[in-house]
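Sample intake — LuxR C-terminal-related transcriptional regulator
Collected from: Streptomyces violaceolatus
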Amino acid sequence: MVVDDHRLLAEALASALKLRGHRVLAAAAPAAGAAELVISRAPEVCLLGTATPAEPGNFDPVVRIKRERPQVAVLVLGPVPSPRGIAAAFASGASGYVRHDERIEGVERAIMKARAGEAAVAPALLQGAFGELLNPVAQPDDEGQRLLQLLTPREVEVLVRVADGEDTRLIAAGMGIAPSTARTHVQRVLMKLGVGSRLEAAALAARTGLLDRAGASGG
């Protein structure tokens, strides 16, 4: 069974597998309805499409399928995943991971492995995942570093003062700027951080270690 929210992709893959002698049912369904479809049909193998393998909760349908139909081997069909995406897929109970751009022969090999109870993931994917784990690229998932890069040096100083509890008047006096300018800086910081209040900005900065990083980069 091939389940994906892109009907064209699901039907094209199903047709290609049928030409190679497999009995396949294609279905287009959003993630929320995918589990019900697979549970009701109970195929030997399900190719379950995803567009965002690293998002939290993205593999909940796999968890539910394996809980209610443990005999169904689920292969995740998605984009090139991060190591976290591959780990999350297997942690949810998936039998393997197949890239969207895999050749039909590779998809068929993955299906055969899954039916035999083996883990099905292309060696190149594993090599890429291990390579990224062993040589991380400057902590790409570091939220504090990402947020810090959104702010100008002056906005970082404003955030530090906000976190210290300074009001607009104190910020203006401490930085030698007009209160209206200080207020503008504060609003820009809130907008860039995606928060609605100074309290939220201070909490976000503390939670992500942004202030520690600001101090390190400043000194």
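Post-analysis note: The first strand starts at residue 2 and ends at 4.
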